[in-house]
Amino acid sequence: MKELRVAELRAADPAGESSLILSGRPIVYDQPTTIKDVFGEYTEVIRSGALDGADLSDIRLLYNHDVSKIPLARTPRTMRFQADPAGLTMTAELPETEEGKSVYTAVKRGDLSGMSFAFKVPEGGSHFDAKTNTRTITKIEKVYEFSICPFPAYPQTSVEARAAIEGTWAKLKDPERAAARIKINQILKRSV
């Protein structure tokens, strides 16, 4: 299932008449963050190296995840990225369109400062520790897009859709598992 993250974005001074350059760090490693989800609140961490071997071959830059509009940039021609020990940075050259100019101006003024990214975690690429209420992502299979967003969920990184958590909650709603869940919670409370 495709998931989303949020991070910071900056505008660079134009190098020429038609250079609308944005740069940012949409993916940040090892930053515990509190996620507020329909299923409740929990902590999430994307571990260093989660992008190793990920498909980064065709990433689009969008505004607010709107796939019905023309992308603002696309790898490898108008957007580049660089993995480093802290996560992933990106630089994009926006088009000389009304939307490109509007987005660039809003970022430069500080009206827009958040970035999000959509991605897929493979089976076994994350785990949820019920005792610490933490989801740890160790592997990202594919990055689909980066988006410039008006309301980032939080400064470092944010997930908007949670396949692993949703699956866990669906299992917990199963009547046969309810008794087991109660028993596990009792055991966990005694061990704390």
Description:
The protein is of the alpha+beta class. The chain has helices spanning 98-109, 163-173, 175-191, and strands at 2-11, 20-28, 33-37, 40-46, 60-63, 73-74, 79-84, 87-94, 114-120, 126-129, 134-137, 142-149. It has an 8-stranded mixed beta sheet. A 4-stranded mixed beta sheet has the order 3-4-11-10, with no helix packed on it. The radius of gyration is 19 Å and the shape is globular. Residues 8-162 form the Prohead serine protease domain. GO terms for molecular function: peptidase activity. This is HK97 family phage prohead protease.
Please describe the topology of this protein.
Blueprint: E1 2-11, E2 20-28, E3 33-37, E4 40-46, E5 60-63, E6 73-74, E7 79-84, E8 87-94, H1 98-109, E9 114-120, E10 126-129, E11 134-137, E12 142-149, H2 163-173, H3 175-191
- As a percent range, the share of strand residues is 35-45%
The percent range for helix content is: 10-25%
Number of helices: 3
How would you classify the helix and strand content by structural class?
alpha+beta
Helix-strand topology string = EEEEEEEEHEEEEHH
- Overall morphology: globular
Number of domains: 1
Throw out a few tags for this protein.
viral release from host cell; alpha+beta; Peptidase_S78_dom; 3 helices; Prohead_protease; 8-stranded mixed β-sheet; 21% helix; hydrolase; 192 residues; HK97 family phage prohead protease; 4-stranded mixed β-sheet
